[in-house]
Amino acid sequence: MPPTPRRPAAFFDLDKTVIAKSSTLAFSRSFYQGGLISRRSVLRSGYAQFVFLAGGADHDQMERMRRYLSDQAAGWHVQTVRDIVAETLHHIVDPLVYDEAVSLIEDHHASGHDVVIVSSSGAEVVTPIGEMLGVDRVIATVMVQHDGRYTGDIEFYAYAENKALALTELAEQEGYDLPASAAYSDSITDLPMLEAVGHPHAVNPDKALRKIATARGWPILDFTKPVQLRKRVPFESRRRTVAAVALGAGAAAAGAVVVASRKSRRA
Length: 267
Fold this sequence. Notes:
Mean pLDDT: 77
CATH architecture of the domain at 9-20 and 95-266: 3-Layer(aba) Sandwich
Oligomer: single chain
Number of helices: 12
């Protein structure tokens, strides 16, 4: 029996590539209203959002934000976070989605490509955003849980080289043809992910990524039109159960772990 032909996929960073803000920081006010963080933390998150949007956070800034957010989350009820995200998702994220990114996702699906969101934000935030966008897979940061609460430790941090590692293992698992696949990101920290595919694209790139993209002849895309997603396509007609993918601390050798499957593949 001949082997199944490998197929292309499209890998999208989330923040400033598909949506116009940091997905995690965008929920800070909702977490405050839900009693999870203080007003001071909301203000600090607002400042971090400004830094992120003004020029893109460098590695050291991302590391500080990672430590700050993981420390903040220690002791939170996992279900409370999920409930807050579910209740406020459309109010917060829907107006922030780039129209150009939605069109690209639709084009890839029309070509028969799986679409994968690859984000350093937490899976509890990224997975429902992926469902809203109608993508097929999500790779996101996974925090350690114990007795229904976050411990403050990180099981898998979907950042920099880890994104490329998870992407490569997912491609092996799903039969994606990486030389024929595309990737989209705004940040130099995603250079390993962009280099892992045959068709990298710089979207709203920071200075460092723009310089590399120009030197290598990669397409540079400028997304400028946030749109209310539900005005384009009704949410319920687009929603699917997304396959969330992550590398756990004990699963690195075993590869990517699929924790949920698309409805269409359960049938």
